[in-house]
Recover the amino acids of this structure.
């Protein structure tokens, strides 16, 4: 039936890229109330005059679901419940036209009434939906009422017992995208009733060096009472919106009241391909429906990229036949103080960050993001992982088959909506059907049959794209076990969320080893790292990432500081990325996360209710150090950046200085003196390190110049070293964070540094990454108590071992050494007895802290003078019975 037509370069002729439909925004002047007790009947009767006036996008959770305020760590504080929206709007008479109400999203479940008549219900927080209001709209005033429900499902019968049932993110409620009224000129139209889709489904079915075939399926609907013959013209118009590239026209007979699909091929010579970041070329795809008189009765216009994507198990990702290692970021859809009610400008800003860092792929976690978001990915040229919100759980109760509750069916519909609504977006490379659903008893909840059925849905909706899912690590403590879900039949590709050196694992190479084992286990299935990262508090710093334990999240209820120094996050990323770049078989890798995001039951780092793994802060105001690590690696933009720059009140007179730079060479000056230089070859993965750089008392000006071709990029910071820290050492043994003022009843007020200058020894044992060290009150022998974390920060951690030492660089002279001890674990006198030597001479013999203090968790100090004559003080701790231990060290010039 298709009769190819049109031609290249002669002007679009009759093909217009202008909208033919009338789309009226209904974003303004809604009346809103959040009220869990209002009934449908009461709401229908309400005039809304007492309700607040709001504009869309709107959520009642803008503040409480997107805040960094500290709050109860276990209970999300944001309000989940019912939000009512009422809009009065005028409509004109529109005989012979078709009119549909479009909701771009409503969270999570929406019931909609027009003029008191129920239009229907939509269950799913992220996808668009429509209602036919051709007959329901009145000429003159109309009243639209929407009930949105984001209640946390109480049980499997709850209306909101749909995906997502779980997840480390907040589920804001309301009309957080927008609402509009679509009017087509006639009763025949390109389908508006197809799960919120455009009714047009285009795909590149063949691509050679010089030509491409684009298959365009249009779903058509004749809502009139008479049969009719129509023509459908599918065209590609160049990016200029004027020049027709190629059209194809076909005729179709649409019976009264019926739908019909019509597929046709557009054969394109010399297609201008969508080439990712380097050339994200987008045609206008125009599908026009004309009636038998030749009048255009409907037209759908979208951007479309001609491209072919492929994932290979051994070679990773290919775009148009060319290998492109995919490296990128995850994003959520919330912003500080706005939650999900973000604007297109906010999304533009998000993409400005993504562009700046140089990502070439984005995982839109953990649910369908807005059309506008995906359109920006199309335009920037980043490859998108799009995802169904099936996160963590498939039922509220255990041992429940999600097929019996409606959960599974709803998940399949949400997946169909996602795929149909985003089918034509060039950027989408992967349909993800789930995130981390194999934990707990989900295997017995029949999650595996559900995953198989979802994969089938995805493949039948869109055979051209690969499917995937993201799975968590299977492990026993730090021991990683073989992955589940790796047998064929689940998804084409397989993503793993991996947090070595954060939630588990202790080695820098474990990520790589784990990936290799997985690759060997499933050699024919492409695998990628769907998440990796580390919490990152921009006010926490460290002098030594090996000095103490990081806190992955706090579950103690604010009785400890949850240490997440920026320098530690830098270290995790550097090491993870080092493993990633060595593995070209990876189909893609995605940092968790581009931005800090709202997660109501978290307390970690220096903020509350927020997941701190962003490489940019929640408020988009600070690009954390690690942002520049990736920017230096991923872009050609000159980057010369001093890390740990926010560690301005320094603890030690010597420091390592790390610079992220893609310069050909850099030089370091401190206080005007040249300290050293590095060539690019000295900076693996763009990490340049200057070891043991001396700082002086007062302000230190640290300046790095990077030579980038003819351009010099200068970065400068100013770090302060208090006089007493310039000559003395105050070390919090076993502590990861540095530069904090401790005011201790026993030790006085000093600025302490993280554990550093040690050789050997061990950190407190891990009983879970969130419960390391002491909390609460520490008794001070004879001086009452000190409370962790308020005043007792130097007592919550320790270093212990059969033999360990501290090697301190000191000016020659006389010093007083003060060592702080407490016994955290031993229960019997004599269980731990040890010696301390200074520069080879014994100073403390056979110390039994428990016996000396009289009780566990009770602080004591021992002091002794030393003379330094060779520029170093060596403190040796040697176990006599059990391990030696120390909580803090002060070495003060006399
Ligand atoms: C994950 C989840 C993600 C969490 C992340 C984290 O594996 O998929 O939703 O936010 O870990 O930070 O723990």
């Amino acid at each position: 039936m298709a009769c190819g037509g049109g031609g290249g370069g002669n002007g679009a002729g009759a093909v217009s890229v202008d909208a033919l439909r009338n789309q009226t925004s209904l974003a303004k002047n809604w009346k809103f109330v959040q009220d869990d007790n209002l009934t449908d009947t009461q709401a229908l009767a309400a005039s809304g005059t007492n309700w607040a006036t709001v504009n869309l996008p709107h959520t009642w959770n803008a503040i409480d679901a997107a805040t960094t305020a500290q709050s109860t760590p276990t209970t999300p504080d944001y309000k989940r419940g019912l939000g009512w929206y009422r809009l009065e709007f005028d409509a004109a008479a529109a005989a012979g036209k078709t009119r549909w109400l479009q909701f771009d999203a409503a969270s999570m479940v929406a019931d909609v009434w027009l003029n008191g008549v129920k239009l229907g219900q939509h269950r799913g927080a992220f996808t668009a939906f429509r209602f036919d209001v051709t007959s329901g709209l009145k000429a003159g005033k109309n009243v639209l009422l929407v009930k949105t429900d984001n209640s946390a499902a109480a049980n499997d019968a709850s209306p909101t017992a749909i995906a997502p049932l779980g997840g480390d993110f907040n589920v804001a409620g309301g009309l957080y995208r927008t609402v509009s009224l679509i009017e087509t000129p006639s009763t025949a139209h390109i389908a508006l009733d197809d799960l919120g889709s455009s009714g047009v489904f285009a795909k590149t079915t063949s691509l050679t060096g010089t030509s491409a075939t684009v298959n365009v399926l249009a779903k058509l609907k004749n809502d009139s009472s008479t049969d009719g013959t129509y023509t459908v013209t599918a065209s590609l118009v160049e990016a200029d919106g004027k020049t027709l590239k190629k059209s194809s026209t076909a005729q179709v007979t649409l019976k009264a009241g019926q739908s019909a699909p019509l597929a046709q091929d557009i054969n394109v010579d010399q297609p201008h391909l969508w080439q990712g970041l380097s050339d994200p070329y987008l045609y206008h795809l125009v599908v026009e429906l004309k009636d038998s008189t030749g009048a255009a009765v409907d037209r759908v216009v979208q951007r479309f990229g001609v491209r072919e994507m492929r994932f290979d198990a051994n070679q990773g990702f290919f775009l148009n036949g060319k290998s492109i290692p995919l490296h990128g970021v995850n994003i959520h859809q919330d912003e500080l103080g706005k939650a999900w009610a973000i604007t297109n400008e906010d999304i533009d800003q998000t993409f400005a960050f993504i562009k700046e860092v140089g990502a070439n792929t984005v995982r839109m976690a953990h649910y369908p993001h807005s059309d506008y978001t995906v359109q920006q990915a199309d335009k920037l040229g980043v490859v998108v992982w799009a995802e169904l919100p099936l996160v963590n759980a498939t039922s509220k109760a255990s041992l429940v088959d999600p097929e019996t509750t409606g959960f599974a069916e709803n998940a399949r519909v949400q997946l169909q909506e996602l795929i149909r609504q985003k089918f034509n977006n060039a950027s989408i490379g992967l349909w993800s059907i789930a995130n981390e659903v194999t934990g707990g008893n989900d295997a017995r909840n029949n999650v595996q049959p559900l995953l198989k059925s979802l994969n089938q849905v995805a493949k039948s909706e869109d055979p051209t794209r690969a499917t995937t899912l993201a799975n968590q690590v299977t492990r026993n403590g730090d021991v990683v076990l073989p992955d589940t879900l790796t047998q064929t039949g689940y998804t084409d590709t397989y993503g793993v969320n991996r947090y070595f050196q954060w939630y588990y694992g202790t080695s820098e190479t474990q990520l790589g080893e784990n990936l290799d084992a997985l690759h060997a286990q499933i050699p024919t299935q492409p695998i990628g790292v769907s998440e990796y990262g580390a919490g990152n508090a921009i006010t926490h710093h460290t002098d030594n990432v090996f000095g103490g334990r990081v806190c992955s999240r706090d579950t103690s209820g604010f009785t400890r500081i949850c240490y997440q120094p920026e320098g530690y996050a830098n270290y995790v990323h550097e090491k993870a990325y080092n493993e990633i770049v060595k593995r070209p078989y990876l189909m893609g890798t995605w940092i968790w996360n581009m931005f800090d995001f709202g997660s109501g039951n978290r307390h970690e780092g220096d903020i509350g209710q927020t997941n701190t793994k962003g490489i940019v802060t929640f408020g988009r105001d600070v690009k954390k150090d690690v942002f520049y690590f990736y920017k230096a690696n991923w872009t050609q933009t000159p980057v010369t950046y001093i890390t740990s720059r926010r560690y301005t009140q320094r603890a030690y007179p010597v420091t390592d200085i790390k610079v992220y730079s893609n310069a050909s060479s850099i030089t370091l000056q401190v206080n005007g003196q040249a300290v050293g230089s590095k060539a690019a070859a000295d900076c693996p993965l763009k990490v340049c390190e200057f070891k043991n750089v001396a700082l002086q008392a007062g302000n230190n000006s640290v300046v790095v110049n990077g030579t980038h071709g003819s351009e010099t990029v200068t970065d400068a910071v100013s770090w302060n070293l208090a006089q007493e820290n310039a000559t003395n050492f105050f070390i919090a043994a076993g502590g990861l964070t540095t530069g904090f003022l401790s005011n201790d009843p026993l030790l006085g007020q000093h600025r302490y540094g993280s554990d550093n200058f040690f050789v050997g020894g061990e950190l407190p044992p891990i009983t879970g990454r969130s419960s390391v060290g002491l909390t609460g009150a520490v008794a001070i022998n004879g001086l009452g108590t000190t409370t962790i974390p308020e005043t007792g920060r130097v007592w919550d951690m320790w270093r212990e071992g059969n033999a360990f030492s501290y090697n301190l660089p000191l000016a020659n002279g006389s010093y007083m050494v003060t060592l702080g001890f407490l016994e955290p674990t031993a229960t019997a006198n004599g269980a731990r007895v040890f010696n301390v030597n200074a520069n080879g001479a014994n100073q403390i013999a056979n110390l039994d802290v428990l016996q000396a203090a009289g009780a566990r968790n009770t602080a004591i100090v021992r002091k002794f003078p030393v003379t330094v004559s060779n520029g170093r003080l060596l403190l040796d701790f040697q176990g006599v019975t059990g391990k030696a231990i120390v909580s803090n060290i002060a070495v003060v010039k006399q």
About this structure: The chain has five domains: 2-19+190-304, 22-64+74-184, 309-637, 651-723, 728-893. The pocket of GCB is lined by residues 167-168, 366, 435-436, 472, 497, 531, 592, 611, 613 (CB under 6 Å). The CA atoms of residues 192 and 368 lie 20 Å apart. The longest helix spans residues 566-581.
